[in-house]
Amino acid sequence: MHPIARLDHAHVWHPFTQMRDWQKSEPIVIVDGHGAVLRDIHGKEYLDANASIWTNLHGHGHPTINAALRRQLGKVAHTSALGLANEPASRLAAELVKAATAAGPGAPRSPLPAPHLEKVFFSDDGSTAMEVALKLAHEFTRRTKGQKSPRFLGLEGAYHGDTVGAVSLGHIDLFHKAYAGLLFKTDAVMAPYCYRCPFNRAKPERADAREYRRCGWECVGKVEQKLASAKKRGTPYAGFVFEPLMQGAAGMIPQPAGWLKRVTDLAHGHGALLIADEVMTGFGRTGGCRAVAQGKKGAVEKSSPAPLFACQQEGVRPDFLALAKGLTGGYLPMAATLTTQDVFDAFLGEYEDFKTFFHGHSFTGNQLGAAAGLASLGLLGSPRSVTAREKLEATLRSMTASLWTSPHVGDVRQVGLVIGVELVRDWKKRTPFDLREKAGIRVCEAMGRRGVLTRPIGNVVVLMPPYCTTPAQAERMVTALRDSVDEVWG
Ligand SMILES: *Cc1c(COP(=O)(O)O)cnc(C)c1O
Q1: CATH tag, 87-381
Q2: Does the beta carbon of 126 sit less than 6 angstroms from any atom of ligand 1?
Q3: Which residue of 14, 50, 290, 313 sits 20 to 30 Å from the alpha carbon of 236, by its own alpha carbon?
Q4: Which CATH architecture has domain 3-62+386-488?
Q5: For a pocket test of ligand 1, which of 131, 159, 323 has the largest count of ligand atoms closer than 8 A to its C-beta?
């Protein structure tokens, strides 16, 4: 075993990892990365098929981001946001507001006045971005609506991070049971999961379940009932928390078109603040470039930028927008919580009123992170990146079609540049594998031996490549997945 691997085994405790299993084999030690390719300490190359747990956007070692970081390093790496402003964080805040408030192409209009994002609170990661949204929403509601203990409604299967507040907002039983004693109560309502929806009367087909489902939008009805009964009890929800277009850690579960718009209009109509967790979906992950490119005969114009956020694709205007993972292009831990002037104003007062938002982190507004974020946003807006994203989305869509030949592929669901492949014992009956069989883990291990790195979520294998992934690399990822499924059950 390599000495570095031995050090890891001796001292490093890995996240979400059964360390007994981890210690059984030599870990892959990464030493460098270029584009979608990672290289380990023995010189073996891998494709980064989940963009380093959903963070990387433009590939590793991107010259533009590297140069921006070097330039910033020549000035200063970090100073505190307590009492000091800095250039990259100020510029990044302005750019984020601009990007988040741009209208999506053909966005439907709401009958109600929509919130307008104005202010940016920086923190370190997705969990802290959600903690900030939660605390702000809680305190805003107490101050402006006179509710003593504001309550939140989230979605079944939701994941919003691992700090205690973020865990309280989430609803994944496996993660939550252990910490039940630490958490506060939030409510959950049914989220779409067309493939396994009890209201979907369609027999399984070899297609994304959203396309052939037969239902009466019962999932929207469930949200409506929940909102109405809370109102009837005299305790309307302070906030509705959601991952737009696709729930990530739930197993890459996409929402059928129109669901998000309907439920957020309902929640907004009931006076709930809309808290959008775009930690995974943000920064172009969910696609939506095509509408722009097609309208211009393939040419992308500066005047109609492709939307960077999932909410924009359904014309949803949230009161809070939590961003992290891709914010720095996947280079550095940095997060942002965007919110409205209204929320901001509720924290204004004389010093001695103590209305200050008492929350912050040592690295809030970090210059290096902000410099990377600015460079990444610049890349995202370039016609080259928009075209590349659009092409990669189409390439993946056509290549994953070949996965349907396997009887152990039950659902292949794609939203933009995210794909979840649900493995099943028998596709004709949607029979799931028992988690203890480690179906997803075994397939991902087999993919690793083929030089393709990703991680499963239970029985779902994730493909979420960096945007710079070439068609040949995308093909290798999909082929490795198909061959690995054949190997495990062949
Ligand atoms: C990853 C993730 C988080 C948590 O982000 P961390 O940076 O890991 O704290 C929150 N919400 C969603 C939707 C995520 O995918």
Answers
A1: 3.40.640.10
A2: yes
A3: 313
A4: Alpha-Beta Complex (3.90)
A5: 159
| Cα-to-centroid distance, 278 and ligand 1 (Å) | 9
HEC-encoded secondary structure of 70-98: HHHHCCCCCCCCCCCCCHHHHHHHHHHHH
Q: Residue with the nearest Cα to atom 5 of ligand 1?
A: 126
CA 95, CA 89: separation in Å to the nearest integer? 10
CA separation for the pair 156, 136 (Å, rounded): 23
d(CA 189, CA 412): 24
Task: State which of 167, 252, 280 you would mutate to test the pocket of ligand 1, scoring each by most atoms of that ligand within 8 A of its C-beta.
Answer: 280
Cα atoms in the 13 Å half-sphere on the side-chain side of 183:
18
pLDDT tens for residues 16-45?
999 999 999 999 999 999 999 999 999 999
Interval 324-355: pLDDT, tens:
999 999 999 999 999 999 999 999 999 999 99
Query: Would you kindly state where each structural domain of the chain is located, as residue ranges?
Result: 3-62+386-488, 87-381
Report residue 483: phi and psi, to 5°.
-65, -35
pTM of the model: 0.96
